Amino acid sequence: MTIIRQILSWFVVPDLRNFGTISRLMLACVTALLLFPLVSGSSESYLDQLYMHAAWVAPTLLAILIKGYLFGISMPHLYESKYIVLIVHLSNLLLFTLIDYVLLGERPNFWQHFFLFNIFSLSYMYIEAARRYSLVPSLSEARLSALTARIRPHFLFNSLNAAISLIRLRPYDAETLLENLANLFRAQLRDGSQSSTLGQEIEWAQEYIAIEQIRMGHTRVQVMWQHHAPDDAETPHLLLQPLLENAVFHGIESTHRPGCISVLTTRQKHWIYLRVENPYVPTESEENAKPHKGNSMALHNLRERLSLMYDNDAQIKSRQFDGIFRVDIRLPYRKKSSDMKKLFG
After folding, report:
1. How far apart are CA 253 and CA 221, in angstroms?
2. Where does the chain cross the membrane (predicted)?
3. In the chain, what are the domains?
């Protein structure tokens, strides 16, 4: 069993819920289809062979894409199995056999097609594994950058000073502030590679805002929540809190006046949309305003983590207009598999 696991570690099952992965797979299939006639050794013309191979490659690819997408949507916990590569490859072989041998009746050429299918399938999973392993250094760097940029020192010190000043006059507010601060740090010390849920992200974001409202006042820090997306939607770990910290730090605290932050989440078909808006004060306007010359580290780290987690499926855009700074995020809607499913799956 140990030897089998070591061999299986050389291969990775592509995520067929991802448009970027599907695009790469289709491009690889087209390339292989153009090469098949060159290695078949048949005396027929190149175009005739190309047509004959396309007759079994196209329906087999379509069936595998549909099967991979449906399994990824309905049973995502299955892909955490140690033998997922073996399970997927055998199921793909079954589909290939049903299409090529049973439906198309390609019995004279079945073993040739069988050999070509196995070579392509294993080669693609091996290349996909190599591609993912090549991203490991970038992923580690992104985790480290995100960890060091999550909590700004001034926020921590100001929150602790606010708690100290409230202990005698408003002990309940001081206790609430410290509890929320502890929850935030507990969340930020988790493994950055773990995914979260949108509901959990909203909860952490609200705890962060509660701290800022106690520290600066409810009238100064106002948030309008419009949460219309499913709570079980899978998201990267700590998706919203850094964006809200940026919104408070650059949009409200720097202006020394009240401000309203807007948070909107919606679902449209297979997509989750998030929007965060906050007041924006250009550097050249308002003499009394002291906008922080912050860098775009939070947005850069989030963009990199979205790319590593969702490939080309996720998008993040930011722009400034009419005194507003807006961040728009689009994620594919995937239900977060529960721990109970992992235990009994």
Report:
1. 9
2. 51-71, 83-104, 110-127
3. 1-147 (no CATH), 152-282+293-332 (3.30.565.10)
